[in-house]
Specification:
By secondary structure, the chain is of the alpha/beta class. It is about 35% helix and about 20% strand. It is globular, with a radius of gyration of 22 Å. The model has no long low-confidence stretch (mean pLDDT about 95).
Length: about 375
């Protein structure tokens, strides 16, 4: 309604009050599922309101003017450390700064932004949008960013806890799962997240090496991004192989269809068996599997001079709060087992692998931190 009345900046503030990274989410989140699928117009007319495009229009209009619509509250004298400058960490930092706290954000990489800067396909966020959004977010003031700081190396959680009134952990997942098959260490078998990161930081993406025959293993957004990027960079044959059916893939149907439209072949119900080649990958062999994941006895061999692993990431770090499975255990407010320590985003239990979810978890944890520091809970 605010956009319809020609007040896009007011619309942007409405969006950003709940999702400070509304501009990025309008670009990378599956709005066709999360928003438009539930639109009443979709039910009645078969065509939803284009929520993603409208959100992008409003937030871009405000951000391009350099306007930051929020003002910091009076200083509280409290200091909060945020470990991880990705969507969850930056969301928490912004909300806490807006509430009057002083924030120091630590991140292991040379730039802030997390997966938005290093893990999203270049064709989705061109022209430096991710860094532009970070710079705009920091206009709230009260936030200091220190890069090149690694938790468990030069940054010890106990020391951080003693120095700050509260700590938020939002460092994501930095480890990459292994295939666990013979030949995995051959040249040309790479992590998809590193391929995407190299593209994101390259001054000329055309100079990033890409194979002739590329195989991507996985079924999530990173797998689709790597496959589409490889095809756009000139790979002749790109095959995405997933161990279950397409309905199980974390990548949305929209993203799957996008990959297919770019010429990516999608093979399902196949798991890697052996990487073949003399020093460097030349072929990769798969077992076809049934619904129960047991081998059918049939195999598939694909020519490959480049194989990208995109089968999930793992949490790395020492002296962390208690884990639930392979992630930090948190309650509904993001509180961990350690007093004064909260967590959110990909490193924390629950939720899903979406930017909008990470932003929401950072925001909600920030509100609980504020309540705790204010003595109201």
């Amino acid at each position: 309604r605010q956009i319809a009345t020609d007040t896009p900046d007011a619309a942007a503030k409405t969006i950003l009050s709940q999702n400070i990274m509304g501009g990025m989410c309008a670009r990378v989140c599956p709005t066709e599922q999360l928003c438009e699928q539930a639109c009443v117009r979709e039910m009645a007319e078969g065509k939803p309101v284009l929520i993603g495009q409208l959100q992008r229009y409003a937030t871009d209009h405000l951000q391009e003017q350099g306007i930051h619509p929020f003002v910091r509250a009076a200083a509280t004298g409290k200091r909060v450390a945020v470990v991880g400058a990705g969507p969850a960490g930056l969301s928490a930092a912004h909300r806490l700064a807006m509430l009057g706290h002083e924030i120091v954000v630590y991140d292991a990489r040379p730039k802030a932004g997390g997966l938005n800067e290093y893990g999203i396909a270049t064709y989705k966020t061109p022209d430096g949008f991710a860094q532009g959004e970070v710079d705009w977010l920091l206009k709230i003031g009260g936030i200091t960013v220190e890069t090149g700081r690694v938790l468990g190396a030069d940054l010890q959680l106990d020391a951080v806890r003693s120095e700050f009134d509260a700590v938020f952990l939002g460092m994501g997942l930095s480890g990459v799962n292994a295939l666990g098959v013979e030949g995995e260490t051959k040249k040309g078998v790479l992590d998809a997240v590193d391929f995407i990161a190299d593209l994101r930081q390259a001054s000329d993406v055309a100079k990033v090496p890409v194979g002739r025959d590329v195989v991507v293993i996985g079924g999530g957004m990173t797998a689709v991004d790597a496959a589409v990027q490889a095809k756009l960079l000139g790979a002749l044959n790109v095959t995405l192989v997933y161990r279950r059916g397409r309905d199980w893939m974390n990548a949305s149907p929209f993203e799957q269809d996008l990959a297919a439209s770019k010429g990516v072949r999608i093979v399902t119900h196949a798991t890697p068996k052996t990487v073949h080649g003399n020093g460097a990958v030349r072929e990769i062999e798969f077992d076809y599997v049934g619904e129960d994941m047991s081998p059918t006895g049939q195999t598939l061999r694909l020519a490959a001079d480049q194989v990208f692993k995109a089968i999930g990431q793992t949490l790395e770090g020492e002296d962390l709060p208690a884990l639930e499975g392979r992630k930090i255990a948190v309650d509904a407010n993001g509180r961990t087992s350690l007093q004064g320590v909260w967590a959110g985003g990909d490193c924390a239990s629950g939720g899903d692998d979406l930017t909008v979810t990470a932003v929401a978890e950072g925001r909600d944890a920030a509100m609980d931190i504020h309540a705790a520091l204010s003595g109201s809970v």
